[in-house]
Amino acid sequence: MIQQVTSGIKISVETNFEGTFYKNYKIHFAFGYKITIENQSKDSVQLTSRFWSIKDALNNTEIVQGEGVIGQKPVLKPGESHTYNSGCLLTAPFGAMSGHYNMINFTTSKKFKVIIPSFKLSAPFALN
């Protein structure tokens, strides 16, 4: 598990390989990830948007950004957490993801970024 704390918000990431399939005559490697966002600060916060950089071993990069996560903009009071599952497709059996969440602190009304630590994606059959 990969973990990082930014401004009192702890991000934990777990990954798993889901399998391979063909799409548009190309093989794709499917990966799932589970993210837990834990508010360790003394203020209530809300996740408003996300930014991802997804890279594979073939040097392809995909940028994904948008509002919330999986259709939600969770509000976290001190001590609360939010967990969600998502996934991505790569055209190589190895890759990595990194990014950040944009959040707002309800006490100060300030917007801030929470770093999502870089995490690796790898198909177990491709490892030595």
From TrEMBL:
Top-level taxon of the source organism: Bacteria
Gene3D superfamilies: ApaG domain
Domain ApaG intervals: 3-128
Pfam families membership: DUF525
Coiled-coil region: none
Protein name in UniProt: Co2+/Mg2+ efflux protein ApaG
Gene: apaG
